[in-house]
Amino acid sequence: MSGAVGVGARYDGDAGGAGGGGPVPGGGPGGSGDDAEALLRARLRRADEQIEAPPGLWDRIRESDGAPEPAVARPRRRPYALVLGVAAAVAAVALGVWWLVRPGPVHVRPAGPPPTVRLTVHNSESACRGRRLLECALRLAKDPHAPYAARGNSAGRVWHGDVLTARCVVTDGRLVRDEAGLTSTRWYLVTTGQGVEGWLPGVRTRNTHEVPVCPEGHK
Question: pTM surpassing 0.85?
Answer without folding.
Answer: no
